[in-house]
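hey m, so remember when u said the tokens were messed up on ur end? i reran from scratch. heres the input so u can diff it against urs
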Amino acid sequence: MTATPTPGALKKFRRTPWRFQQTVERPEANDLDRFVSTIMTAHGRVEAVTVTIDEVVFDTERMSALCPPGSTLAHDTSVSAHSAEEAHALLVAAFWDGPDFICIPTPKPFVFYADHDDWITFYANTKSHLNHVIEPLASRGYKLVQNWEREL
């Protein structure tokens, strides 16, 4: 895993005109592994992810443990996981620690923004790509937030 400063990454994300979005409530900590597994397999198999921190609200102990020694996790820092196993571990740690962050998977049929208030908004440019991640989450009992849109 790598952690690097990425000035402007969040600004670029916010300027991207995503056509479709759906927000999901983050599950309890004891269900994060299953939740992340559902996301990781939504479009076949996520091969890698980049998590870019918007704001650190709580301690990032779990995320920091995955990063190289001396890494600082702050606004506009990106942590990149280079395999599916690393990506899974990083997402579980990020959801557990609760910073506000964006996640860009590889391949990139969708992206998401997670906040410390436990809401995760998935974005895609086609309804089909969005449904491929939202439908498995809903069918596994994760709560969709209806009639709400995140303004970036």
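this time it looks ok to me. The two ends are 28 Å apart (CA to CA). if urs says something different then somethings off w ur setup not the seq
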